[in-house]
Amino acid sequence: MVGEEETYRNAGDCGNDNVDNLVADNIVAFGGPRDEERVLRRELARLRQEHRDLDSAIDALETMSTSDKLQLQRLKKRKLVLRDRIIDLEDRLNPDIIA
Known about the structure:
single chain, 99 residues, 4 helices, 78% helix
């Protein structure tokens, strides 16, 4: 649990630019649209797992009587940022094309 708290301590430090750069670097390394989709799906799976982990960490902190309110607020903020990023990647993988 301590590792999770350290990981999410600076919730505001997670920008979409960092993830976009990571995805772009992997696409260049692999090349091609199929590889791009594979990289995006891998990143989406990682973000979903991190979102679930945050959910567990938030639940654990909320059950503690001496929980740190600021830490809880940071985790919730990080979870919202992750959710936005997940939605962005889902939209990139499954564009809503109106014919």
